[in-house]
Amino acid sequence: MTSHTTPPPSLFDPVSIGALQCANRIVMAPLTRCRALPGSLAPHALNAEYYAQRASAGLIVSEATQVEPRGIGYMGTPGIHSDAQREGWKLVTDAVHAAGGLIVAQLWHVGAVSHPDLQPGGELPVSASNVELSGTVHTQNGRMHRVAPRALRTDEMPGIVEAFRQASRNARDAGFDGVEIHGANGYLIEQFLRDSTNLRDDDWGGSVTNRIRLALSVVDAAVDVFGRNRVGIRLSPVSNANACPSDSNPQATYGTLIEALARRRIAFLHFIEGNTGAAHFTDGFDFAGARRGFPGTCIANNKYTREMAIQAVESGAADAVAFGVPFISNPDLVRRLQLNAPLTPANTKTYYGPGPIGYTDYPTLESVQAG
Ligand SMILES: Cc1cc2nc3c(=O)[nH]c(=O)nc-3n(C[C@H](O)[C@H](O)[C@H](O)COP(=O)(O)O)c2cc1C
User: Do residues 28 and 17 touch, judged by C-beta distance below 8 A?
Assistant: First the structure.
């Protein structure tokens, strides 16, 4: 007798994420490493080598890349707004593709998570409203306290959306397989989403409909360029990353946003469950309900172990799982998870640039065993 029940997928099975045929369900999470070329902030050969080493991931989400000069909040992060940056990213996508991988660009604007020392002309960073996020920013002049940003004028909003549209074109021309809109971790899009940081009374603030307008406009701009099946978004409904205060009702705000994204049938949602890089939890937002209502792929992230990831995919709680820190120090993470081999721990001191140490010099399992 044959059984008609399909066995649950495994973490190591292929998955389609929109138009992308991924070899497995292990995603490399976006990881800022601050190793773009000084001056041009263009990616270069070292970055191409790093990403190609990790091309066995089912999908790589690139480190966040700023869509305009004001979108920067850290020294040495790559942009995707100039010709040199586009050409630099081409080195990266070519190297990943040559190694058999897939890579989408994470499009980013930090908004208030910056400092005048990093901004063009020493201007104030921009945001939804002039709400200061506590914390410090590392600049060429040392560590500085964040400042209250300048609220974007209503007539400047189309320009922000255009920056994401042009960045999407640059990503396409640089050979990326798609884009992930960075709607998480307290950066500009999330500063508009949350009523704690968005105090506006124009069409871009106030009601949930208005607060989700920037996220949806940016997604629509990316879809215009790439088509809906190569666009996803990263969301962190309950994270307090970058000291961004919580929304008063994450369920209503993010739930309404996700319903609108479901109607657009974009390729994927990428959820950070809990506090980014800290506690994993799912209280405060119905992640399972959001997944049920979304027709595309759901990628889960935050502090997943091998066992948690296997369980999440086999139980249907997630279609794929993204790993961040484990990919920093294990270029062959997929193989190690397959074999249940030990993982090399990451050195936090070399997370952020410059140079190859703690970047391209982490060993594969073979070289560990040989050495
Ligand atoms: C060094 C470092 C850089 C990061 N850069 C980004 C980034 O550019 N974009 C982003 O959305 N998240 C970023 N994150 C968060 C990770 O993508 C991920 O959500 C977090 O590390 C939790 O996943 P993990 O427990 O598997 O590491 C970064 C985290 C680390 C440690």
Answer: no
